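Try it yourself: sequence plus zinc ion, in.
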Amino acid sequence: MVKLTNIPNYMERIRYALNAASEERFCPPDSELFTARKSDQMQRHLDNCESCRDRLEAFIEFEYTPQNSSQQTTSTQQRPASGDLWTIRPDLAGWDDSGRYFNSPTILVLNFQDNQTILAAQTCGIEELAYQGDLILDAPYAGFVEPWNTKFISIDSLEKKVGEVSTNLVKTVCKYEETAPVDTLPFLIKQFRRQECEVADYVESKSKSLVTPSYLARLFEVPVGYELLCSDEKLEHSFAAATTTIEREVPGGEGGVIANIESSKGKITIRFVGLDSYGSVLAGLFNKTRKQAIPLRERGGSKTLQFSIRPGAEAELYFDPSDDINDEFEIVLAAPSSKE
Ligand SMILES: [Zn+2]
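Structure, out:
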């Protein structure tokens, strides 16, 4: 790659830098590019991207050996903190319809909105594209923070911590206010910022799809000794609009509660069946779009509904979809763990 500082003309340098940034953001990684089966999006990308056509040609000449890319789990051991630089999980990267591959960026954690959601500012590694308002990162990190490009994202979308910055820098980013109207930005900078915002939008949309049982358990403050009545595989079936019945498997048939969710003619019924011991069940609604646990209206104000069920008895809970429930909501249930 040409060293950008060796290009004397400013506009020429920016044009070159923007090109490099576009490739970094929107060209597929080797693992994607060098697969035998080419998707439609890939073909579209190749039609428009000379750089990737060159990469493919080089691949045909020198044979590609794929890197071990089996790591896709979030390092949940470590919790992000304000001032941390984190990468976004690579498995959240992907194509859009126009043939661009959205690579996962690195973000700066600004603060927590709730236990599970952070406000993040995107960073860019190509310093030449920094302009008014951008904050250059101190060594050893290259690039800058984009205070005009922040999003609320789930901490489940983070991959690994790659550094940290000073509290002062975080404060400056948080205090940022748009001073100059966007129209006064140079054309190439405007174009760059638009594309950076598209990357952030993509990350935000992926982050919203990450509703996992552990996340729901935290939101509903499911107490120790309780177990969430949905698994990763079954989660999709627990959507209120689904007609599928979900049933919890009770290991060894001891204690606990079985929950069925049924949908018929506009009413959702959740039926709990007590087995051979008393059980108390927590139920709540979760808004998938806003990522919020919401109280059940009948019980005014309470975050979750708790009730007991006798051994062998059945209890039913009704929800009226015209009231609270539509595709945006999910019913979340927790019962005492049978290990207790
Ligand atoms: Zn490309």
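One thing you can check immediately is this: Residues 134 and 194 are 14 Å apart (CA to CA).
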